[in-house]
Amino acid sequence: MRSARIAGIINERFEERGMTERTKVRVLFVCMGNICRSPTAQGVFRKLVQEAGLAEVIEIDSAGTHAYHVGEPPDPRAQETARRRGIDLSDLRARRVTAADLEHYHYVLVMDQDNYHALSDLCPPGRGLERRVTLLMDHAPQARMREVPDPYYGASGGFEAVFDMVEEAAAGLLEDIRQRHL
Fold first, then answer.
1. Suppose 69 and one of 46, 47, 90, 94 were both cysteines; which one would form an S-S bond, judging by CB atoms 3.0 to 4.6 Å apart?
2. At 55, is the secondary structure helix, strand, or coil?
3. CA within 13 Å, CB half, 6
């Protein structure tokens, strides 16, 4: 009942902005291999969006800049960290980001400068798509670190730290989307 009411309000706001109810705000999280940081961000943000009753109007995905793990589920350590915090990542599978993604998604959120440069290079020139590519941590301005470190080669504690950072930035991202689009 609550989500139907929220969806109705959102559809009214979309119409006020000249958008149709089929228009969604599209968000893509990107890291290197799409098995640690970006699926964690996808799972965290998906939960926030669902809890806010906005799943009908926000599309969420993740991808990697490299094809090392295409088709694989998230790293078991990422899944375990998420599971302990009430988030299920088991349905996610790694994929490689494409140039078409840069046109499809309104928000392309990268975990570090290497990802940023890889995607900036992928943007077709003269289209302004590089403006869509930003650091995820830009949505957590009070955070000390601007990049989400890759926990892949470290101990499981690195996944906890990544999760904490992603949670903070995801909350800021959702607030930004609400202010700009909903």
1. 94
2. coil
3. 15
pTM value is 0.88
Domains and their CATH numbers in the chain = 22-181 (3.40.50.2300)
Q: Which of 75, 101, 112, 150 is catalytic?
A: 150
Strands lying side by side in the sheet with 58-64: 58-64, 25-31, 107-110, 133-135
- 58, 172 contact by CB (below 8 A): no
> What percent helix, strand, coil does the chain show, rounded to 5?
50, 10, 40
Backbone dihedral angles phi then psi of residue 159, each to the nearest 5 degrees:
-70, -35
Helix (H, G, I), strand (E, B) or coil at 110: strand
Residue in 37, 46, 77, 132 annotated catalytic: 37
Two structure tokens written together for 48 = 């926030």
What residue type is 98 in one-letter code? T
Residue 137 has pLDDT above 80, yes or no: yes
150 is catalytic: yes
Catalytic residue among 2, 17, 31, 36: 31
Alpha carbon distances (Å) from 19 to 12, 14, 23, 47, 119: 9, 5, 6, 25, 28
